[in-house]
Records
---
Amino acid sequence: MQHRRLGKSAIYVSDICMGTMTFGTQVDEKMSLRVLDQSLDAGINFFDTAENYPVPPKEEWAGVTEEIVGRWLKTKNRDAVIIATKVCGPSHGWIRGSMRAGMTALDRHNIKHAIEGSLKRLGTDYVDLYQTHWPDHGTDYDETMETLDELVRDGKVRVLGCSNETSWGLMKSIEASERNGFARYRTIQNNFSLNNRRFEDELAQVCRHEGVSLLSYSPIGGGVLSGKYNDGKTPEGARFSSYLEHGGRQAAMVKRFVNERTLAATERFMAIAADADMSPVTMATAWSKQHDFVASTLVGVSHQDQLPEIFAAADLKLDQDLLEAIDGVSKEIMYPMG
């Protein structure tokens, strides 16, 4: 397993990070603990969670994932494990936070309450990386960054990051931090995969010039790039199969991830992987890691049997011919997720 620095911070992490958003819903606690143990044994030292997990967010489930990770963490050497978690963004937009009666925001009140809750559930006195889960472009960035800076100064947080942020929002936050002398974002956690390469358009340049690392999530396109949704399949227990039953935002998300263009691109990517004698999951994970602006690629599973294909990407470097074949599909089927 390779290791990379989070932005210009002092923290080095494995270039594969185990995400935990399924822990407590799709994955029960017993299997969650096995996934965490097997990941650590495979050389992964970086684990990502959030106060809003598990998904889909519900008030009765709020914080369950952090509690599971916390019980596991108590059995490990805390210094050897890098823990990332997140504070909910505003609940008046595209998603409603599961915490604080759905009245979440990125103001001082919410951030202070969120970190105390996360530390208690995780059973630790600090988190290594604290991230804003989604942006609050209506809140003064000075207030958000000042409050986050206080958490760093208090020793409750080592490094700051954002998630699902735009180029404008990332630069706005950096400007606020630099103008006021606050701690700044060192990472951004955004969607990035073979089926969603939009990060390369603008945000990649921001990362390169501002010393911010991407933590790419959904490198397998929410499981789509495994091929399990091709040919009209809706496998039982799969994330998007269950999301179709929820309707609303979850159903809208399915249409973005699983559509005619994403499935067509996936079929092409699967053929490329087969010619290279590797799993499409392995290829997609390795591709994500093979970018200069990426520090770590976040993966997730609904069953421990999915781990070997992910672990196979640990030290894999895709050759130039394979990369060119992948680029050919991306040029022919541009932006399949919209």
Note: The CA atoms of residues 37 and 324 lie 36 Å apart.
---
Amino acid sequence: MNEWKYDEQSLTYKKIKKPKQILRNCVVYFVSSIVLSAIYYVIFALTVDTAQEKQLKKEYAYLESAYDSLNTNFLKAKVVLEHIKQKDTMIYRSVFKTNPTESELTFETKNFSMASIMENYDIVNMTATTIEQLVERVRQNRAKIEKTISEINADKTKFRNIPAIQPVENKNLKYNSVSVGMKIHPFYRIPKMHTGLDYTVPVNTKVFATADGFVENIIDDAAKGTAIYINHGNGYKTVYAHLSKALVSKGTKVKRGKLIALSGDSGLSIFPHLHYEVWKNGKLLNPINCFFAELKPAQLKEMIYASSNIGQSLD
């Protein structure tokens, strides 16, 4: 029970404070001060960065930017390397008696989170090293291709005698058909080796010589119909079959791109088309590998895909 004391000066009763109550008040004040201090500290920590936190955020932003930059360069380098490989194949390096470019390096791409980067700075160094290796590989491949091009330029005559364009106007690849390989014969209905590339062009489409040379022979038989044989030298020969008309004669010298015939449907043919063959030293080549002077890698891929997925020949 509270005790009261009369104050003669103020003429009022005042409560007498006991020692326990004073102690209780001090404890409450102390605890309240600590709680308020903690709240102020949390608010300060959430809204104001310390010098160390500012430095860590700067390092994080730098690493994030560096990682994105390295990944971008890495992907660009891979694209360039793949493009060089495609160009290398398209040029058909064996034609120029040079060794094909070999890929000695293999790379495994992996996605890393920023958390893992912050935990291990070595990831950034690893990515940088990988990019350096790719760039070096690109440099080596480019040097080999430049050497090949230099050899070509050193002997223009030799290059002009290599079949390197399509025998008909087909830049949009709308006339693609059957390629070299085992196909179902349209008349015999059995698997038979198809020795050329067929173009589904209309009758009387212009046919061009694919390299410099001379007309070695012109035949007209039951199988190939009217056909022109051109000898290009260096072991190369080309054949243009199922023609409606030959516009050159035996022994005529021709240049690459010269009009030599009109396509047709002569001989053993189920549909109007041009049958085109390329031979090197008596060995059959796939003509698609000899269009490096005209087709881009993407077009080459499209042509290979379209022609290889047809199971029946036209002749």
Note: The CA atoms of residues 171 and 295 lie 8 Å apart.
---
Amino acid sequence: MRVKKAAGYAGAYVSDVSLVEMSADTKAELEAALFAHGVLFFRDQSLSAVQLRALALQFGEIESHPAYDEVEGAPGVQVLESTADAPTKIEKWHSDMTFTPRPPSLTFLHAQILPEWGGDTMWANTTAAFLALSEPVRAMLSGLNAVHDFSYGFQESIAEPGGYERLKGAIQDNPAQTHPLIRTHPVTQQKSLYVNELFTVKIADMGALESRALLDMLCAQVIVQEFTVRLNWEKNTLVIWDNRITQHKPINDYFPQHRRLHRVTVRGEQPA
């Protein structure tokens, strides 16, 4: 297996590896690379939805998403699709599903249909962002918690005609969650920023002005250019990332072209 860095702080291209029948040693190598780089890019991975699901299952329990359809015959394989009639609305930096008690540890994303141009995705290293903060700021953040809310992240979809009724069950099943503002990775013990502009509503026990100012600063810190990497998708590209140490952002510059990807998220632990 070969691993080649894609940028200074985030991302690596992985080649010469079989993901369909993966040995325990290969899995261990992949996990080590993932913890080191945050996000891994694999080209030319012809995987069916069933095979993608089987791959993800080797890393843990699969978690569904309340707002996305799934591939028939492959439970937990979500369909992320944007068309001229139903364009995507998610375009903010985020870590997946932080509105749940145990947000996903890993996400697997596999390209199915791509636009002729556009549709890149970016990732940012939230550990590097944390370490770049000054010591007084890091000390101030210690012990603080932030509130994450499904309804806040999907407010545009909810506001659509019929949107509330379509997502009513998801809203009821996903009340706001409070997580540490700084979380510790359970394997590497590295600390990282754990707030994002899509789902984080406020910092607990702070006034609105204080909370907004601090959240804006921290979200800006995460996406400093030096901490990011950008992927130009090709068909059958597979990406695996660790939500505990990264954030990501789709770039929606391809309308009205068609884009479809399959996604699987692996249930994580309660952030601490």
Note: The two ends are 32 Å apart (CA to CA).
---
Amino acid sequence: MNFDKETQTRILRVASDRKQGRDIEELDDRISHVMDLHPEFEEIWSMGDMAAYPQEINGQIVSPFVHTVLHTIVDSQLRTEQPEFVVETFNKLKGQGMDEHEILHAIIAAFADLHFASFRQGKPFDQLDYQSRLGYLSYEDSE
């Protein structure tokens, strides 16, 4: 998935299909799953193109579009096990007791930071840096 108009249109179509109870194809099903994880975005999808702009949600400024694309990218990495270290990190954090959605957000944060820094600098995405950042992630249960 890309951060482009085509993806924005697709996400809005999935939101509409969900609302109308229509069938959803496989990639769209993954987008729908991300939407299930974020019911706080539900009202924003009805705003159409405005959903691409950052919104204040639960006291934080978030772009539902960007957040959904990032979730879908990491979801794809996990399902295809490419790169392998993403699955390894997910399993490590899960084994440490971290909530699955929190794990996704931790991985997404590392991916997004690198993706947008690379994009701004006109450089390719650095897989080794991504692997290194994920390697530092850990969760210690406070109990």
Note: The chain has a mean pLDDT of 94.
